[in-house]
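[User] I have long wanted to understand how a fold can be written as tokens. Those tokens are not coordinates but codes from a learned vocabulary of shapes. Could you go through the record with me and say what the backbone is doing? Thank you; the sequence and its tokens follow:
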Amino acid sequence: MAKVKLKQAQGNVVTGDRFWDREKDIELLTKRIDECAHVLLVAQRRMGKTSLMAEVYQRLSERYICLFVDLQKAASGSDAIVELSLAVQLHKPLWNKTKEVFANIIEAVTEKVEKVGVGELGVTLRAGLTAGNWAGKGDQLFAILAGSERPVLLMLDEVPVMINRMLKGHDYRITEERREQVDEFMSWLRKNSIKHQGKIRIIISGSIGLEPVLRQAGLSATINNFVPFELKPWDEGTAVGCLVALVPDQHVKVFHNQQNAFSFTICKVHKLSQSPLPQPVLILFFIQLSI
């Protein structure tokens, strides 16, 4: 039987022929999406949450208008609306309507807005959004998405990082003002997720858990309409299969003694950590065994 090969990838996100397994996860997540559920993607760090979303994005892009929004640098509701607007820019019919929402803000560049770089446009939008108008503009933006011909799959990555930053600031202190700002944003997101359910599906993900962050501020209820979706670590067979597929030599195999050592190492580290073993650690141990 021909050996299954996996292309090696540079960087953190993998898709297509660089994406390994997770077929059951993709099938179940797609089912949730098709059922109009809003999803809270839960997993340890380095478990492949962003790659899973990117792969689902590619596979569902013919049935859904897929929008991927990275909020790891966002620090306010205004920042989130800007990032969402820039994601919409990739879909011209929706972007033409979105420009009308921000007409007063981008009036100075309206004639050349299609030629304006994403960075410059982002700066322009940020300059015009305030604490007093971002929610209203965001409501209009959600209404535009809900009116699209195809349903929208909105993937919000690193929401917990954004919320943690908003809640604690640079001095890592939770204040009443910061709590109110987080409450306003999460309540706004909840309101729109309920109002447009069936037309817009939202996936929230991040490198840290969102619920524990919100719990610190007593705001866990703002995500009670999101269905938790746990992304678990690979089992041993999947991990070994991935590593074998990464070996370029068609004749290289994992011998029985190597597999036993590999299994023993997994077991030993698992006992030390008392938690599922992250995938990158498995790769490091396999490399050591193969030398």
